[in-house]
Amino acid sequence: MNAPTLWTRAHLDALAARSCPTAPVIAAGEVVPVAAGIGVWDAWPVQTLDGAIHRTKDGFELWLALATPLFDDPDQRHDHARIHLFRRRGDEWQHAGPAMPDGFSPGSREWSGSAVIDAAGREVTLFFTAAGRRGEAATSFEQRLFAAEVSLIDDDGAPVLTGWRDLREVVERDPAFYMQTIDPAGTIGKIKGFRDPAFFRDPADGAAYLLFTGSDATARSDYNGVIGIARAKGAAWQILPPIITANHVNNELERPHVIHHAGLYYLFWVTQRHVFDPEGPTGPTGLYGMVSDDLFGNWQPLNGSGLVFANPDQAPAQAYSWFVFPDLSVTSFVDNWGGGDGRRFGGTFAPFLHLHLEGPRASLREGAMTRDVMTGNAMTGSVGR
Fold it and tell me: Keywords assigned by UniProt (predicted)?
């Protein structure tokens, strides 16, 4: 197995030589709650084994997203996060409440993951991050990777997930490669990672993998983010060494995921300006990625630097948690939108974007942003793609 590919300061130096590609500004009319009284952020749909968004015979998509009630301080949401279920059909969104029943998850909170449905379209596997431990006296940043099974059934014309079962820890941390995450003094942006499992089936041989956010146990720098990987081995998962490391560059390579496009592997992750090493060149908050003809080596940063696109200068934190699908559409959520002074947390789905990929070059397609046109009552809305 190859050594991890390095994402280096030299790659980031390429950003200084050219203007950064940026997403369009999100307008006020596009920041419309997807459900009454809650804010949502990291989101993912139920996907088929090849990564496409699954649609039921009645045209529904099922989406999962981290959600909480709205807080005066939006950062408090991380201490209360649960995975909620949403249905989408055409222009309508429906909020179905928490995905898993109370007391089922082993964590004090639930953080990001992914979900995949079997070939028959009946059984869903949810991979997710259990943050902390249920019943802990003080909120911790411990992170563990879990999976659970659930059945997809039709309930009076609407798809529902029912019969949650087989909860299990699927990937256990290998201390030779990945740091532990128990740090009572940690703060958001500085904590270490073992989270964000994302499913990928390699079309070359049908092998299944989980990508995840980690921290390098061998690093001397506090800025030691890595992208980890595990391979399915029968009913178990075998943890492997990281495939990307950002030592001395960046602390968090979040929500890593892979798509296969035009015969190449494209690996994407998201990160924020404030988690770059301040002693080196820093990049903007944005979507980053690499390309390779081999899942385990020869990764080359897209556009020379790794940056696919950033938030616009006038709203440098307007969106986050971008996730790319095989059709090259990109979802995200509205974060601190509008620029200017103060914090305006959108807490809803952002307009979809669309990429163009050609070898090591990545760009936003012309007219890449599809506007949200939310309609209906407080529990429904619409978004085009």
Answer: Hydrolase
Domains and CATH numbers, the chain: 5-364 (2.115.10.20)
- Beta-carbon contacts of 259 under 8 Å, excluding residues fewer than 6 positions away, are 51, 200, 265, 266, 268, 324, 325, 326
Give the span between the Cα atoms of 1 and 75, in whole angstroms: 39
Half-sphere exposure of 6 (CA within 13 A, CB side): 9
pLDDT at site 233: 95
Residue linked to tokens 């890595």: 226
How many CA within 13 A on the CB side of residue 155?
9
Longest dimension (CA), the chain: 58
The pLDDT assigned to 339 comes to: 75
Query: 235 and 291 in contact (C-beta within 8 Å)?
Result: no
What is the rounded radius of gyration, in angstroms, for the C-alpha atoms of the chain?
Answer: 19
Select from 115, 112, 111, 93 the least CA-distant residue to 45. Answer: 115
Q: Is the pLDDT of residue 371 over 70?
A: no
Question: Distance between CA 354 and CA 341 in Å, rounded?
Answer: 30
Q: Are strands 317-324 and 329-336 parallel, antiparallel or unpaired?
A: antiparallel
Residue 56 has pLDDT above 60, yes or no: yes
CB atoms within 10 A of CB 87: 18
- pLDDT beyond 60 at 35: yes
